[in-house]
Amino acid sequence: MNATTPSSAAQAQQEIAEEFAFFSDWTERYQYLIDLGKQLAPFPETCKTEAFRVHGCQSMVWLVPSGDAANLHFEATSDSAIVSGLIALVLRVYSDRSAREIIDTEPQFIAAIGLAKHLSPTRSNGLAAMLAKLKSYAAAAKNEE
Fold this sequence. Notes:
53% helix, 7 helices
């Protein structure tokens, strides 16, 4: 994982696709996802509240926004190792971006790395719910401008 945030969401998605291209099978890709999840910043227990919970996920997921329309930052965590890895990817693409860029960015990395075909329906629904919640936070920030 890069120490710096990629300059754009599109660049972040490209980097994710390139990283996953190194792995020849899905066992390795899942292990990489789990490893990425372990690198998430520590999540404050005080934020594990219903207000920040993402509904629609089979596992427990919390997503906390901060900042404003010019630069939204997200912190998130899950009780699932694979979902934590998905969160790490989502945060790389969407965190520390403007609300406009977040709203305008489609999650192409999901198809680019073959994730859509390898997630269970419940995980796919959870990922969609997480992206929808993230975009709703961005839309709310944009409306407050």
